[in-house]
């Protein structure tokens, strides 16, 4: 009975920790989505720099949530709790890579993402005589590494946001961005095709959605190139949305 009570205590502790991680992951997902919605205003907002600054503040708040996840996982095997935190990490990768693309027109690496997820804190020791103790601070570090699979799934989700950015850019009269996005998405798609069916199941599932996003952007570029001079700029976005609906119907999508 003593052994089983200790087993019960261990399992209850692990279950409680898992539930706390699920809640943190949900908060990370919500805040990351809000950051993505904010970044979509970059093309239409007159003060784009303000949007980027505000998005950085939001991402810093998300990183504080990830810091709490890292603290929960101290002394634990991360992969035992990976299913609890994976959705939040994927959404965070999507938000960070979207912001990075808007800034640099390139793809952020998993190493750069992990560099941002190393946290430090200083706990001051409570001493009555500060002069007698020179070490009044003890630095602590926490880190959480985004796995390659979470990174790939986040980048795959990024392609959908880039497709929406393409359509909104055309609606705002930006004709160059769709062609730039088309080349960028083609490079990402080529990279995913190298993985093929050898990667995890989730990655091969996302490949179909990625192909759809690429097709919609290429269709927008085709319309701009062939019929751009015929259609007024303020009507281009409507033409693209109509064509997108037709593509979805042809592929049997709701």
Task: Describe the protein in words.
The protein has 254 residues and is mainly alpha-helical. It folds into 2 domains: 124 residues, Methane Monooxygenase Hydroxylase, Chain G, domain 1 (Up-down Bundle), CATH 1.20.58.190; 78 residues, Up-down Bundle (Methane Monooxygenase Hydroxylase, Chain G, domain 1), CATH 1.20.58. Helix content is 71%, strand content 6%. Strands 1-2 form a two-stranded antiparallel sheet. The longest helix is centred in the first third of the chain and has 38 residues. It is elongated and about 80 Å long. The C terminus is likely disordered. Pfam families: Translin. It comes from Lepidothrix coronata. This is Translin-associated protein X.
Features:
single chain, 254 residues, mainly alpha, Methane Monooxygenase Hydroxylase, Chain G, domain 1, 2 domains, two-stranded antiparallel sheet, 8 helices, golgi apparatus, Translin_C
Q: What's the domain count?
A: 2
Query: What is the tally of helical segments?
Result: 8
The CA-CA distance between the termini, in Å, is 56 Å
User: CATH architecture of the largest domain, please?
Assistant: Up-down Bundle
- Main-sheet strand order equals 1-2
Mean pLDDT, to the nearest integer, reads 82
Radius of gyration (CA) equals 23 Å
Alpha-beta content class: mainly alpha
Question: From N to C, what is the helix and strand string?
Answer: HHHHEEHHHH
Shape: elongated
CATH superfamily of the largest domain: Translin, domain 1
Q: Predict the CATH topology of the largest domain.
A: Methane Monooxygenase Hydroxylase, Chain G, domain 1
Poorly predicted regions are 123-138, 249-254
Roughly what fraction of the amino acids lie in strands?
A: 5-15%
């Amino acid at each position: 009975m003593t052994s089983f009570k200790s087993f019960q205590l261990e399992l209850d502790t692990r279950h409680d920790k898992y539930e706390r991680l699920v809640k943190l992951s949900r908060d990370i997902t919500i805040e990351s989505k809000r950051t993505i919605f904010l970044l979509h205003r970059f093309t239409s907002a007159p003060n784009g720099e303000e949007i980027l600054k505000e998005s950085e503040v939001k991402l810093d708040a998300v990183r504080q949530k990830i810091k709490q996840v890292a603290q929960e996982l101290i002394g634990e095997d991360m992969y035992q709790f990976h299913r609890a935190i994976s959705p939040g990490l994927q959404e965070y990768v999507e938000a960070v890579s979207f912001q990075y693309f808007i800034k640099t027109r390139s793809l952020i690496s998993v190493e750069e993402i992990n560099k941002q997820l190393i946290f430090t804190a200083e706990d001051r020791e409570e001493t009555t005589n500060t002069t007698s103790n020179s070490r009044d601070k003890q630095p602590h570090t926490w880190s959480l590494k985004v796995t390659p699979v979470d990174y790939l799934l986040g980048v795959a989700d990024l392609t959908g946001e880039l497709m929406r950015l393409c359509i909104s850019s055309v609606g705002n009269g930006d004709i160059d961005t769709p062609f730039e996005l088309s080349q960028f998405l083609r490079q990402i798609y080529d990279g995913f095709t190298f993985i093929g069916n050898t990667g995890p199941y989730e990655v091969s599932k996302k490949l179909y959605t990625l192909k759809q996003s690429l097709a919609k952007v290429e269709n927008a570029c085709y319309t701009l190139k062939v019929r751009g001079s015929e259609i007024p700029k303020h009507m281009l976005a409507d033409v693209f949305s109509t064509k997108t609906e037709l593509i979805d119907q042809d592929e049997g999508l709701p």
